[in-house]
Amino acid sequence: MTEMKATNVTWHSSHVEREARERLLKQKGCTLWLTGLPSSGKSTTAFTLEHKLIHRGFASYVLDGDNIRHGLNKNLGFSADDREENIRRIGEVARLFADAGLITLTSFISPYRKDRDQARKIHDDSGLKFIEIFVDTPIDLCEQRDPKGLYQKARRGELKGFTGVDDPYEQPLHPELVLKSQTATPAELADLIYNYLIDHDFLPASAR
Amino acid sequence: MTEMKATNVTWHSSHVEREARERLLKQKGCTLWLTGLPSSGKSTTAFTLEHKLIHRGFASYVLDGDNIRHGLNKNLGFSADDREENIRRIGEVARLFADAGLITLTSFISPYRKDRDQARKIHDDSGLKFIEIFVDTPIDLCEQRDPKGLYQKARRGELKGFTGVDDPYEQPLHPELVLKSQTATPAELADLIYNYLIDHDFLPASAR
Q: Which of A26, A30, A6, A74 is nearest to A176 (CA)?
């Protein structure tokens, strides 16, 4: 415990302007919202892009089940209301990260159009870009991958409300990007997003 | 809407390591948790520090009523449970920001010791530093400032459960820093925190 004094004079009563953050980080904050069926490749794509961005000197962060479900959203279950609130909170946190200037990735099934549209709206309302990325992997390929055996459990009726089996996945109508993971590796998909970020001025041309 | 392919090969299945972020940002992520009475000077101190950090080239972000209460926590009221949940969510979001490598500031009254201790615990559990900063302004000075006339309203009984008037403020027992705002400007207080960050290796010595 320390008590101290100091000697300078200027002070501020409001947040740093977005432009000052952009100059510092040499990038524009935004949210890359990955959506798709379970095992479609969202997280691997997101992590691969995060690694590439950090390696190239850009600030980025992935929000995913690991760091959200056991923390911020640990008091939510899987009822309809809780699923909606889950995505609502993720949208709000992504907005904060984008506002802080980070290339923010979210990796959640987020099966319902209205929840994704709501996440887009709160970004729009803050003057921040929401980039919806549909990881468009055919369900039979997702089921073949199924690293945790969840499709199998759902097919046996041991898991209820599993997206793609007994709960709907509503495809995006106007996503900014569609990724076809059956014909490309996660690294190739990450590159597509990376190039999108350059093409749309979130990253400088020198990042190419 | 675009469909694309690409050509490289490496990929990753997990988050970027904390050390890689630290190298990129030339700083260590942490949470600076400002706590104190209404009008004690928390937000002005936080914003002043955020400006200084960004100006010096460090990534920082302030979580405060503006960007939390109208967004992530807009579905919370002021009941005891909602107040606890308010601080819980802020603690979780701060942890995510610190994990992303940012010098994260929170500016909330956060009057209850157990809520602050819980926020500290989730940082500890993630191997992240939680730096509790008590903005120790005497209540009579806070009441003199009272820019929004809230103390006046509370004294007239028009606001119920107002911290310092009819709801307790529990002082931190072992804060990392105590700021005395009656004898220093917000800029001086911000400098004290800035120097703390250097002294404790969150910022490089070259930042001095």
A: A30
CA A197 to CA B7: how far, in whole Å? 17
Q: Is A206 one of the annotated active-site residues of the chain?
A: no
Strands A30-35 and A129-135: parallel
Strand-pairing partners, residue A31, are A104, A130
Tell me the chain B residues in contact with residue A46 when contact means C-beta distances shorter than 8 Å: none
Of B121, B109, B132, B116, whose CA–CA distance to B31 is shortest? B132
DSSP at B42: H
Global pTM exceeds 0.90: yes
ipTM exceeds 0.90: yes
Contact B165, B154 (CB under 8 A): yes
**What is the per-residue pLDDT across B33-85, written as a single tens digit (0 to 9) for each?**
999 999 999 999 999 999 999 999 999 999 998 899 889 999 998 888 999 99
Paired with B106 in beta bridges are B33, B63
Of B13, B110, B126, B181, the catalytic one is: B110
